[in-house]
Structures are given as structure tokens and as C-alpha cells.
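Kindly inspect the following:
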Amino acid sequence: MRFRGVSRAVETSLEPPPGYYGDEGPKPGSTQRGLILDWVVSRRIATGWRVESRSGSQAVLVRGQPVNHVLHAFLTVCSCGVWGVAWAALAWTNKVERIALTVDSRGRVLTVSAP
């Protein structure tokens, strides 16, 4: 489908400029480390993660939703226990993943699984 009168934005690469990673060259400053973290976070957001917290050189990302046990308990009582099967399946299969991304002094991104 084509829209008339609407210009398309030119897609630019999300790759960081040369010299952001690696041991060669000068160490990146705090602004450059923040830009590196922004780039990595944007790549993670595109794959389904969301930002839980963010500081200058560290971000905590989360994927998944916790189960609302109060709602499922209410539905189980209202359905005389029938909804309990669905609640048990959701509680068993649902998981929340958390990772911490940190940019070190050399511009490398360290990923750690957070509890």
C-alpha cells in the first residue's frame, strides 16, 4: 500500500562508530559510554525486552510479566475451581527474565543475569 504525500524516513545503521569497542584507541568518556549503552538497550528493546531501570553506564532490562495471583484466585473461586487448571499452567510456565547491562571503562558491554 502506498501513501501519497508521505515521505519515508531513511533507515540508518544502529552500529556504533568505529573505535567504540576494543582495546585500541583512547578510552571512551562517560558520554560515549552512555551512547554505547543506548545502542545496546535499543537493540534489546527491539527483541522484546523493556527497561526497568537505567543509570549512566548501567541498565536493567526485563522480559515477561508476573502472574496476577489475586485475579486468578478470584476467577478460581468464581468458577468453582475450574479456572485453577489454567492458573496452575500459567504459574508453572510463566517466567520473568532480568539482565543487567554495564558498559566498562573500555567501552565493552557486560551482560549479567540478574535475580
In short: Residues 93 and 102 are 29 Å apart (CA to CA). Residues 1-14 have pLDDT under 50 and may be disordered.
